[in-house]
Every structure is written in structure tokens, then in C-alpha cells.
Amino acid sequence: MFPPRTTASASMAAAATVVKITSRGGSRVITPAFAPSSASSLLLSLLYMVLPDDVNQLRMLSVCLMALSMALHYLGYEFARSATVALFTASPVPPSPGGSTPSLPGFGKSSAAIGAAMAAVCPTAAILLAWYGRVLDFYGPRGALRVTGTSCAAALALGGAAVHAMAGTTKFLTLRPRATRAFLFALFVFRESYVQLLGTQHWSFMGSVLKPEEGRKFFAPIAGASSVAAAVGGTFTRGLVGGVGLGGLLVCAAVTGGGSVLAADAAYRLAEHGGFDPREEKAKSKGCKEHTQKGAWGSATSLLFKRVPVLGALYRETLACQSLSSVLNVMFFRRLTESVPNDGERAGWTGKFYASINVVSCVLQFGILPAVMKYVDPAMMWRAMPTVMMTFATAMCVSKDPSLHLVGASFLVMKSLEYSIRGVVNEMVYVPLDFESRYLGKEVIGVFAYRLGKSGTSLLLSGLATTVGGGDLGLRDLGIVTAAATASWTVTAYRLANLVSSVRPEEGAEEKDRRK
Question: Where are the transmembrane segments (predicted)?
């Protein structure tokens, strides 16, 4: 880590390395303080000699560090997801006392257990949000990311250690299967809940540091780098499990999470010394927005959405988008199960399908979007995405028996849009906004609205199946629900686009200049 910033003074000139950072508005002298007797502090201060002199280069370096942090986060998340899914869906029968390699008794293929776990994600996300709001208010954005990131990594490490310990204690597994399942349930729910909590904080920093025109250029490849990291994690998961087991895989997730925290902390340290620390903006705006932050995070969010209407529009758009994605997910797996009854063939089909989504998303993120976003207004992108999906929804709605290729193509296009185009224009919404919008509002939308859209849709489909479908919804019924969800997304996306287009990019750039 870099030493904390202090003011340049004659008394410290002999005990510190002075770094001069130049910009269009002039130059600044930054003097990192350190104790002369500390060898480690001396080594840290020497790092300033290799830092770029231009503040813009320093800013880009901090973005690169945060992008690295986010890539490590999603790399570790892939490890955690593979481990928790394998543990959750393990055989519900406790291992025999004479087994040579005991395993934890999970829930098997119980759809009720999966539904209960997904339903528990939403309140868990709300609890994490309330915790994050308090930490952010007390420690600021850098401290919030450090505390939440370290806590999540510690939870994964403890979970991995517990898995390893319980798997090696056959007597415990035989006598306490319910306690084991409760632990696996909690671990699964936590893994589903924490990923967005940390990922949105990474984006909040980059949205604070980059200007609108820079966001158009860099957001797509930054998202692509995280996608590649996640793909790498999925690729190496099988080899890691063979060597360290599922408990060790969770520990690997904790280690990469720790590396993510270190890279993020270094990015914030550069921001502090470069004069573009988001916390400084919070201090400047605290007086005029103090009324918004009073009370619980729920009431604070309500006041924030009233003050910044685009956040409320994005919240509703997120709910509608995730609702459509959830309906298509159910429809796809229903059609896949009917068309490919063999488990092995279905697993291979599913693997190729998601590989295709990753390939399409990477092509968009690295090859197309960086060039297109230079010339295309983000508001046009918001309007185009649901328009494209309306074409597929209409085709499925009028078809009496939608084919696997039609349903699969619809789901593939939806997920590709969600991972690439929507991911980029979603981050661009926050760039010209204030600190509270980017750090509190973004977390509420990215964590709570995202999960609420999925959980709420699952409950809605269950209710429709019970009251209308006689216990089950057919593909034709799901096609009608898909059309309704697409219409809802179209309305909310168009309203959001109208608000986004009212903020010109040059206004966002002027706001960023004022922050600095």
C-alpha cells in the first residue's frame, strides 16, 4: 500500500519523496509521509518514483487496478459458485460410516430447496445493503470496499475450512445431517448475495474516476476482462477440485478475494494522492445532501430516487429486465428438458449454449462496443435492446409449440445483451451523477432490484401455475408471459432513455471537472 497523503512542507522534505503531478489546470506537489526508521515505509515511498507524472495517466492506472480487482473478484466467484452448487446439490443421503471419502449430504435435485434458497437471497441482499450503508457512511467508499471485501473473503475461507472439517468427520455427518444441510443452505444463499455487493463497488469507483467519453471507450473492455476471468475460473475449477476438494476451492475463492481487496485498495490510494478520491466529493456534498442520508437505508433510498429521477427509472428498468430474463430462463430449460431427455446429452447441450453466450458477449465487449459507443447515443441503445427482444417474444407468443432453437436463440440474445450492451450503458448512467447516487443508489439497484426481479418473477410464475395453469404452465403460456414481460421492459427502458438523453455527455464531463 502507498503511505497516506500529507501536505508538502519543509519539515518533511528531507524525510519523504516528493511527486509532482501536472494537469491542464496546473501542477500539484504530493508528499507521502513515512517514518524514516521504517524500512517498509521507505520501500513504499520509492514506488512514487515510477508513477506517471500526468494526473490523467495516474487516473488511468487507478482504473486499471480497479479493473484487476473486479476481474479477481469474478474469478473467485466462479470458484465459489462451483463449490456451493456442487455441495448444495449433493446426494441427500448421509455418507456411510465406512466410506473412504465422506461427502456432505446436500439437497439433491430438490426443486423446493432451490426455490427456498433463491427466495432467501432477496432478504439476505437487503441485510447486506443495510450493513453496507452503515459501513459506507462511517468509513467512506475505500473503507467500505475494504471491510465488505475482507469480510466476504473471510466468510468464504471459514466456509471452506468448515466444509473440509465436516467432510472428514463421518460421525458428525451421520448424526447431524440437518445441521449440515442448514450450513450448506446458508453458504449457498450467501454466495448468491455477495457477488453484486462487491462488483457494484468496483464499478462505482471507475464511474467516479472516468469521464463520460472515457466510459464509452473503456467500460466494454473492462467488462470483457471480468468475463474472461470468470471463464478462466470455470475452466480450471475441475482441476482444482481434484487437488484441493470443494472446501479447498472455497479457500481459493477467499484468496482471490483477498487479492481483489489489495488491488482495490491500491487504486483508492492512487486516487487519494492524485486528488480524485471519491471520498473528497462526499465531504464536499455532505452538507447539501445530509437530509437524504438520514434514517434507514430504505428511507434514504426513497429520498434519493425522488431527488435523482433517473435512478428510480433505472430501478424499474432493472426489475423489468430481470423479470424477462427469469421467464426466458424457465422457458429455455423447460423446452430443453422436453427436447433432450438424456441427462448427459442435455448437460453437453447446456455447456455449449453458455459457451456461445460467452463468445458472443466477448465479441461485443472487445470488438464492437468500444467502436460503436463513440458514435451511438446510449439512449438509443436502451431503446434498441427491448425492441430486439420484442421480435423474439412475438414469434414465441404466436407459435403454438416454440421450438428449442427459437427459445434458445431468444435466451441467448437476451443474456448476450444483458452481459454486454446493457452492462455498458448501465454503468454510463452513473458517470455524471453525484457521489450518493453512484455509491448508495447503485448498490440498491445492482444488488436489491436485480435479486428482487428474479425472486419476484419466480413467485409470480408459481402463483400463475397454481391458479391458472392447474399446477403447471405450458410453453404457450410462458410465451404469453414472455411477451408481457418484454412489453414491460420496453416501457421502462424507453422512459429511462428519455431521462438519460436529457443529460448531455459534456455536462457529465463538466461535473467530473468540478469534482476534481
Answer: 33-51, 58-77, 112-132, 144-167
Residues 38 and 187 in one domain: no
Domain shared by 248 and 170, yes or no: yes
Residues contacting residue 445 through CB under 8 Å, at least 6 positions apart = 311, 314, 315, 318
Is residue 10 domain-shared with residue 62, that is, in the same domain?
A: no
The last residue of a domain, from among 35, 50, 65: 50
Last residue of a domain, one of 241, 276, 311: 276
- Cα gap 230→236, rounded to integer Å: 10
Q: Check whether residue 216 and residue 270 sit in a common domain.
A: yes
Q: Please check the confidence at residue 339 and state whether its pLDDT lies above 90.
A: no
Query: Nine-digit cell at 121?
Result: 437471497
- Cell readout for 466 is 397454481
Beta bridge partners of 5: 32
Residue 292 within any structural domain of the chain = no
Whether 494 is in a domain gets the answer yes
Query: 295: left (phi > 0), else alpha (psi -120 to 50), else beta?
Result: left
pLDDT band at 314 (very low <50, low <70, confident <90, very high): very high
Structural domain of 253? 55-276
Does 283 reside within a domain? no
- Do 214 and 74 reside in the same domain of the chain? yes
The Cα–Cα gap between 312 and 433 comes to: 13
Give the per-residue pLDDT at 85. 80
Q: Both 227 and 199 in a single domain? A: yes
pTM, to two decimals: 0.76
Q: What is the CATH number of the domain that holds 405?
A: 1.20.1250.20
The CATH number of residue 250's host domain is 1.20.1250
pLDDT tens digits, residue range 12-49? 333 333 344 443 334 444 434 333 334 434 444 555 55
DSSP character at residue 502: T
119-154 burial, b at 16+ Cβ within 10 Å, e below that, comes to ebbbebbbebbebbbebbeeebbbebbbbbbbbbbe
Stretch among 33-37, 170-174, 324-328 having the lowest mean pLDDT: 33-37
The predicted pLDDT at position 503 comes to 56
- Helix, strand counts (H, E) of the chain: 20, 3
Is 405 a domain residue?
A: yes
3-state helix, strand, coil in the chain (%, to 5): 80, 5, 15
pLDDT in tens, 98-155: 443 445 656 655 556 766 777 788 889 889 988 998 999 889 999 999 999 999 999 9
Nearest C-alpha neighbor of 117 from the set 454, 474, 483: 454
CA distance linking residue 382 with residue 379, whole number of Å: 5
Domain shared by 40 and 65, yes or no: no
| Grid cell in block for residue 260 | 481483489
Query: Cβ neighbours of residue 225 under 8 Å, at least 6 residues apart?
Result: 67, 70, 71
Do residues 353 and 477 touch, judged by C-beta distance below 8 A?
Answer: no
pLDDT at 266 over 80: yes
Higher pLDDT, 478 or 104: 478
Closest CA to 274 of 515, 28, 34, 42: 28
